[in-house]
Specification:
Layout (H helix, E strand, L loop, with lengths): L1 H18 L4 H20 L6 E6 L2 H17 L4 E6 L2 H7 L7 E4 L5 H11 L1 E7 L5 H9 L4 E6 L12 H10 L4 E4 L2 H9 L5 E3 L4 H10 L5 H7 L4 E7 L1 H13 L4 E6 L4 H10 L5 E2 L13 E3 L6 H4 L5 E4 L11 H4 L5 E3 L7 H8 L3 E3 L3 H13 L1 H18 L2 H9 L4
Parallel strand pairs: 1-2, 1-4, 2-3, 4-5, 5-6, 6-7, 8-9, 8-12, 9-11, 10-11, 12-13, 13-14
Helix pairs in contact: 1-2, 3-4, 3-9, 3-18, 5-6, 11-16
Family: Belongs to the glycosyltransferase group 1 family.
Enzyme class: transferase
Main location: membrane
Length: 412
């Protein structure tokens, strides 16, 4: 199995290099891979011990971020190295000021893993959620460097829990983890069934992150003017299939206010959305001199303010559920409002939990969306009940970051 793993790594890197001239992400990835070792050799300073935090991409970074910031605050004797595998994480967060060093993780060959670990010499290592790199984990284990998996979640259909040679090989990777900090009791149970009892159910560190964001929200006068005291739906990280269903609702409810914050803010996508709307929309970047109070639709054509926009919403619609999966539901739910999303949400534990609590709703058709929105907008007692359930749910799930650091650093 080792041979096939290394072969797969080789072909992955080869494919990225072939695609690089034609694909921006492949180009960023290959350039980042080449730059990692020169960067580390010129920057690394061992005057203080280093903690290495690895996130695959931007979503995992949002889970790792509260951990990094808590370490920087409570363990000032340590430096933090933050690594990414995906360009969508590195390119957006390469200037993150809470990490001392930020780089792409060199692809997982034995040679790269040896060189990286010898350069960094980490004292402790945190992999976030779904990261399982064979050579890195083997070498960390051989050098007795503690490796912690944080905000991990396991499901019975994963290869670790099946039979066969391939499954056994993958299970062996898990043996290299010092401790698992898992999101659910089910994850801890699955690990115990294969003999791994070194786990603690701490939940998802993203709860701590969204609570911090909500506590430090940005005042958005333009959004407040647009809302004008009326009920407001905010569609966050929306894609075309989400927007089609929301536009169908708008056509039947011309007095309802709606903000679209599309996942893609490039001009061509904003133009496409505006052309499909039943009434003229105002773009956020051009809203300063517009009559916002009389507009029905506001389109957010910038990034970085969605989490604060949710504060003004009465209902949130989270995009992505008609594709590979929904975006961040917690950013909206932290404001104690109903959350709606498409049918592909099962891989997101927080969405499953919110739906089970009666706080979130899944829809598959325009008719279902119309029914749920109409019900929520007209039934104030239901919204009040949902608000209470949201507050309870969030309160129950805060504190994962502190639990992790207390156990790792032996703090009472």
């Amino acid at each position: 199995m080792n041979f096939f793993y290394q072969l797969g790594i080789f072909f992955y890197l080869l494919a990225a290099r072939i695609l690089a001239p034609f694909n921006i992400k492949a180009r960023q990835f290959t350039r980042g891979q080449k730059a990692s070792f020169p960067y580390l050799e010129s920057k690394i300073n061992h005057n203080r011990p280093i903690i290495w935090v690895h996130c695959a991409s931007l979503g995992e970074f949002e889970q790792g971020r509260p951990l990094i910031e808590h370490i920087k605050k409570t363990q000032p004797d340590f430096q933090v190295l933050l690594s990414f595998f995906s360009p969508s994480g590195y390119e957006i967060r390469k200037n993150y000021d809470q990490a001392d060093y930020i780089c792409y993780l060199p692809i997982d060959t034995l040679k790269n893993a040896k060189r990286f670990i010898e350069l960094v010499r980490p004292e402790k290592v945190f992999f976030i959620k779904y990261e399982f790199w064979f050579n890195y984990m083997n070498l960390l284990n051989a050098k007795q460097i503690p490796l912690y998996l944080v905000s991990a979640i396991f499901r019975k259909e994963q290869l670790f829990f099946k039979s066969g040679i391939k499954a056994k090989w993958y299970r062996n990777i898990l043996n290299k983890v010092t401790h698992f900090f898992v999101q659910t009791p089910e994850s801890a149970r699955l690990l115990a069934e294969i003999g791994l009892k070194n786990s603690t159910v701490t939940g998802d560190t993203r709860f701590d992150r969204v609570a911090e964001i909500a506590a430090n929200y940005k005042e958005l006068p333009l959004v407040e003017t647009f809302k004008d005291g009326q009920q407001l739906i905010v569609a966050g990280s929306s894609w075309a299939p989400d927007e089609e269903k929301l536009i169908s609702f708008l056509k039947q409810n011309p007095k309802t206010k709606l903000i679209f914050a599309p996942h893609e803010v490039k001009a061509s996508n904003i133009k496409r959305l505006k052309e499909q709307l039943p009434t003229p929309a105002v773009c956020y970047s051009e809203a300063q001199d517009k009559d916002l109070a009389s507009a029905q639709v506001l389109i957010v054509d910038t990034i970085g303010i969605l989490s604060s926009i949710y504060r003004y919403a009465d209902i949130a619609y989270i995009g992505g559920g008609f594709g590979v999966g929904i975006h961040n539901t917690l950013e909206a739910a932290i404001y104690n409002i109903p959350v709606i999303f498409g049918p592909n949400y099962q891989r997101f534990q927080e969405a499953v939990n919110l739906k089970e609590r009666g706080v979130a709703f899944s829809i598959a058709t325009s008719e279902e969306l119309n029914t749920i929105l109409t019900q929520l907008l007209t039934d104030s007692s239901q919204r009040e009940s949902i608000s209470k359930k949201c507050r309870e749910f969030m309160a129950e799930n805060l504190g994962a970051t502190q639990q992790v650091t207390q156990k790792v650093f032996n703090k009472k």
